[in-house]
Amino acid sequence: MTGHHRTPVTVIGLGSMGSALAEAFIDAGHRTTVWNRTPSKAELLVSKGAVHAQTVDEAVAASPLIIACLTTYENTIEALEPGVATLKGRALVSLNSGSPAGARQMAEWTLGHGARYLDGAIKNVPSAVGAEDTLLYYGGDNTVFDEFASTLRVLGGDTVYLGTDADLAALYEMAVGGTLLPALVGFFQGAAAVQARGIEVASMVRFSIKWFEMINSVLPVFAEEIDRGDYSRPASSVNLFLAGAAHDEELGKEANLDMEWHKPFHDLLKRAVEAGYGDHSISALTEILKNPAPNA
């Protein structure tokens, strides 16, 4: 298939991720139109074959498929407002961050201007765009996904359609993404602890990777426990985790670390014990999270 038969695509927003998306379309032979508030961000892409639209209206008019990659849904609407007259009859795919409520509002705004809407999320870094194992998932208008599935797969081989609800990608994005900051802060704490002993952080990376692999291996078990609502056969109990809280405090004193970020987790453990889950699986914390503390 030559580039002349490939779907023309417009990419709105040329940060590091947006630029990576545009480059993937260019490399795959799609006529790619780009626009960004700062025109200089389009220069490298133009040198690789992109068409630089001078206005949002021109960018939207150039393609039947519009990919918006800005920071938030609010940013996306603000950027597209000047081109709403041209948006009618086109397909808009938004790949920004935001809440499920934001995705629903974005879908309503898009439909109100006569366009079809698909909401998506990229579960990787810009350098991974286009790779066979890069995951992207989408929710919203199934006709958009069906029509442009082969075009969207240019961005990542592991492309998944979640369903017709426009907020599904944002829901999964937040549900899955909730593990990121605690995991990173845990790694950074470990980095500070080994540095306090004069040891290079690079020395712990191999062990941290193994630890994350172990966590990966138990997620299906936890998911099954949570779906059944049965936490009675624990591999690791809430009491076991709570007993480890004292070790966190000891490490903080020894390495002179700020351990305040652990307190909310310790509070969750204590509430689980008070609720009768002490001897149950650590996954029982899910039940505690469903009932926020009164002062939360």
Instruction: Output the structural class.
Output: alpha/beta
Number of strands: 8
* Sequence of strands across the biggest β-sheet: 3-2-1-4-5-6-7-8
Please, how many helices? 14
User: Overall 3D geometry?
Assistant: elongated
Strand-residue proportion: 5-15%
Q: Regions with pLDDT < 50 over 5+ consecutive residues?
A: none
Kindly report the average pLDDT value.
95
Query: For the CA atoms, what is the radius of gyration?
Result: 23 Å
The CA-CA distance between the termini, in Å, is 56 Å
Order of helices and strands: EHEHEHEHHEHEEHEHHHHHHH
Main β-sheet, in a few words? 8 strands, mixed
Helix content: 40-55%
Family: Belongs to the HIBADH-related family.
Keywords: Oxidoreductase
Protein name: NAD(P)-binding domain-containing protein
Organism: Streptomyces shaanxiensis
Describe the 3D structure:
With 296 residues, this protein is of the alpha/beta class. The protein is 49% helix and 12% strand. It is built from 14 helices and 8 strands. It has helices at 16-27, 43-47, 56-61, 73-80, 84-87, 100-112, 142-152, 168-177, 180-196, 205-228, 238-243, 245-255, 263-274, 285-289; strands at residues 9-12, 32-35, 51-52, 65-68, 91-94, 116-122, 135-140, 158-163. It has an 8-stranded mixed sheet with strand order 3-2-1-4-5-6-7-8, with helices on both faces. Strand 5, helix 6 (100-112) and strand 6 (116-122) form a beta-alpha-beta unit. The longest helix has 24 residues, at 205-228. The radius of gyration is 23 Å and the shape is elongated. The termini are far apart.
